[in-house]
Write a structure and sequence with these properties.
four-stranded mixed beta sheet, single chain, about 220 residues, alpha+beta
Length: about 220
């Protein structure tokens, strides 16, 4: 008997351009494999403090302008991941944390599918529309545009439940050795695919796990 489903723990930071590029690959996995693949979206802290990140990692390479040029250049080969020239030069979110907490609140208020829809809209809002998704008013406006119950989301933010859920993601990422975005974890966390992984690589890993007998055990 072969495995009938592959579970993928998918860690991203919502402000990460590589996760934005990877979105099309995630969509293709869902389209090709359907219910045979379960993608469990979780967050990792990469842009929790963007000002410090830019100073420490890009301070000698042009600061925000240097980082903005890097992001535009990274996305340029991928027509499925358009990037607005104004991000990081004019639009500079202070943190990915508030947007990620907002998505966790949406998940608590509804379900994971709705949370994923919101997360994608927030990525589009930043990378395409150059909106500041560290601004709560922007987040609530985008959620309202999707006809989500903003009051319910706001309640989970205010009572700390959404923050607790987000910190749970961060702790799990740390315990699993996830240090960047995006990261695909498969095969009970024995296989980690990190960064700009091509779709064929993802496809091959999933197909191999689906072909593998469910009774296979790990060797010592």
């Amino acid at each position: 008997m072969t495995s009938d489903r592959v579970i993928i723990d998918y860690f991203t930071d919502i402000l990460c351009v590589w996760a934005w590029i990877s979105q099309r690959r995630v969509d293709e996995l869902k389209s090709q494999f359907g219910d045979r693949v379960e993608i469990r979206s979780q967050f990792v802290d990469v842009f929790g403090d963007t000002a410090t990140k830019i100073v420490t990692q890009w301070g000698e390479r042009g600061g925000y302008k240097g980082f903005a040029a890097h992001v535009v250049s990274a996305a340029e080969p991928y027509d499925v991941a358009p990037v607005n020239q104004r991000i990081w030069t004019e639009t500079r979110p202070t943190s990915s944390g508030i947007a990620q907490m907002f998505v966790k609140a949406a998940e608590l208020a509804s379900d994971a599918d709705i949370a994923n829809v919101l997360a994608l809209r927030l990525r589009q809002a930043f990378f395409v529309d150059a909106l500041d998704i560290s601004d709560v008013d922007v987040l609530e406006g985008l959620a309202g545009d999707l006809d989500l119950e903003v009051g319910d989301i706001r309640r989970y933010v205010r009572d700390g439940t959404a923050m607790a859920a987000l910190l749970g993601d961060y702790r799990r990422a740390t315990s699993l050795g996830v240090e960047g975005s995006p990261v695909f974890l498969m095969n009970e966390n024995r296989q980690m695919l990190y960064g700009n992984v091509g779709y064929r690589v993802l496809q091959a890993n999933v197909e191999e796990l689906l072909r593998r007998p469910a009774t296979d055990a790990s060797w010592c």
